[in-house]
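Board notes (copied after class):
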Amino acid sequence: MESTPAQLARGRHTFAFKKQLDRLRRRERALIYTHDNPDPDSLAAAWGLARLFEHELEIDVIIAHGGIVGRAQNRAMVDSLAIKLTPAEHLDPGRFDLIALVDSQPETGNNSLPHGHRIDVVIDHHPPRPESRRAPWCDIRPDLGATSTIVFEYLRRAGVTIDSPLATAFFFALRTETRDLGREASAKERHAYLALVPVVDHALLYRMSHPKVPRAHFAALDRAIRSAEVYGNIVAVNLGRLGYPDLVAEIADLLLSYDGAKLVLCAGHYEGSAYLSLRAEPTQRRAGSLMRAIVGTSGAAGGHGTMAGARLFAKVRSGNTLDAEFKRLVAKLREATNQGGQGPVPLLSHGRGA
């Protein structure tokens, strides 16, 4: 029987995948970097890749991250699934002969891989960067909704058993990254989602999905509601000092539920660094390009259709410093979206009058 084009493509991908694994057979110690302040997709992809290396290469693997695991859901995921993580500052990458980076790319500014350092494996679903080409194993698929989907595919090809904890990690990553397959999900995410459901530990999944949150979460939510401003269909808010960096993404997600919002830009500072998060409705699908355009050379920015983040290079010496910079960024976003003459209107009074 003649093979279909899809079967031929799968065969080519399987051959390339096995060839990449064979190239790593003689390595002894692997270090896998997540992006800084890792989210569920980065954590699950790193954990799954570690499982692949342990099973296929029979080597020791350490998962490293910069920043902190700050968001309550992310901490609950690490604790509930007992994912072993090591702060990147405690490690010397020169002592490892296999270096991998997942859900991020070299020189993006959102990971702790030293600039210019040797890199063997890059796996990501964001738009490709030129620096990633120096990795012999470079698998970047911006058409997918999650990096975990790629690693899930690797494990299936290699015949590695995906046990309940790892299945729960993958499933949680897909849920959060694609908003239950409603945001930038492809057919491959839907396939993985359905394949994982029977193996998921749903009690653990509930614990991860509904964690207790710290006081800082409610303090930030209060500041956001009181200080958010509306410019046409843009909601902008500077949270000031953050309890943890992920708060800008949490608040941006929450504010996007406002019925007049198509774009949300949220900022804040943590330990001297300024963080930005941009969220967009599916009708916009240009968060990544907008964030890179407004930040320009003043920071490291990245993202894709509906989600983007950035960290500014300049240190934040005071709240006033970030206020001035945030106003400049909001003005650039308004200009880029042809809303220069709109607003501002306070979100709270606007909501009451609606």
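Comment from the instructor: The chain has two domains: 5-208, 215-353. The chain has a mean pLDDT of 91.
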